[in-house]
Amino acid sequence: MQFTEGVRFASLPLSGETLRALQKKGIEMSTPVQAGCIEPMLEWKDVIAKAPTGTGKTFAFGIPIIEHIDTESHEVQAVIMAPTRELAMQITSEMREVAVYKTGIRIVCLYGGQPIGKQIEALKKKPQIVVATPGRLSDHMKRRTVRVDSAQTVVLDEADRMLDMGFIHDVTRILDKIPKRRHLGMFSATMSREVMDISWVYQRDPVEIEVAADEKNKPDIRQYRMDVSTDGKVDAMVKIMEAEGFERVMAFCNTKGSTERMTKFLQLRGIDADCIHGDIPQKRREAVMARFRKGELRVFVATDVAARGIDVDDVDAVFNCDVPDENEYYIHRIGRTGRAKRQGKAYTFVADYPSKMRIDEIAKRTKNTITPVELDENGALTELVQK
């Protein structure tokens, strides 16, 4: 079933507390994926939803979960699994916003890279909702610091990415330990064979929701590519930022080393920049992300680990300092801009022939128009005639 329009939240069978929480955020209309998923999930139906990144999937499953919670119970009632710690933290934050007026709801977030003792203390408070990465949830289950067999709702968010990252055995083991679940929600940007296999085994007559990336919900992003030497990327980025007046941008690199170098060279230019990648301690990663969300950091440099975990609505532009290795990475990277009905801009630097071949392939496979441009001394872009 395809959904292209949202509905007014007031028209859905939601509690006064949830409607008040949405009103506090200034939200009256749902997105299409929320319109398609909320009512079936409220009715305890299995759901499999295919929707582009940035279409509001967290509220699509988060609102029904909050509505179902028995605040008098001390058992785990819902388990939400996400592929990365950043996404797990983002989901937890948004769930708490939905539950702000519902007293007695306790949510815990479990992920690797944080001391397990701190999480064990949080679990002693008897949360009803567990948001977790599959690996860390498996660790807690083995230690018997959490029991999830009482959960009635299970959600797999970014299911395609989770299975691509090798979590399929963790996910299936966890699902097998939750025999009392009343429904399973699966949310994914793509429907890979692995995602469909999980659906066939663990879902019963799921309601299928698809939100196509049509012109109504596709982000408005102007995309550019330019030939820039490896040593010239920082110069080009700074010139464009100053010419366009960008105050908050994300820059993506393929490796930890290039992420560190890009950040250091930006800082030497007096640009307020910081970065995250897999080797940076979790506490510092959280601090960097918090600064960026609050608007205190002008440039946030990252490897693709952050592409699915950062959900900021007003990023002025995205810079691909390296052409991504996967077509899907390109979509997730540029999807950080052009949100909330604003036009975004994405710039990809092409430093060598293999990168040129990759960006040509990305444009063809993703059906995106990536305009070749050149940069003048003042940071102005001139479109090049494509041969």
Question: What do these coordinates show?
Answer:
With 387 residues, the protein is of the alpha/beta class. It has two domains: 202 residues, P-loop containing nucleotide triphosphate hydrolases (Rossmann fold), CATH 3.40.50.300; 163 residues, P-loop containing nucleotide triphosphate hydrolases (Rossmann fold, 3-Layer(aba) Sandwich), CATH 3.40.50. It is 38% helix and 18% strand. It has 14 helices and 15 strands. An eight-stranded mixed β-sheet has the order 10-11-9-12-13-8-14-15, sandwiched between helices. Helix 5 links the parallel strand 3 and strand 4. Helix 3 crosses helix 4 and helix 6 packs across helix 8. The two termini are 41 Å apart.
Give me the secondary-structure topology.
Blueprint: H1 16-24, H2 32-42, E1 47-50, H3 57-68, E2 78-81, H4 85-98, E3 107-110, H5 116-123, E4 129-132, H6 134-143, E5 153-156, H7 159-164, H8 168-176, E6 183-188, H9 193-202, E7 207-210, E8 221-227, H10 233-244, E9 249-252, H11 256-268, E10 273-276, H12 282-293, E11 299-302, E12 317-320, H13 327-334, E13 344-350, H14 353-366, E14 370-375, E15 381-383
Parallel strand pairs: 1-6, 1-7, 2-4, 2-5, 3-4, 5-6, 8-13, 8-14, 9-11, 9-12, 10-11, 12-13
Antiparallel strand pairs: 14-15
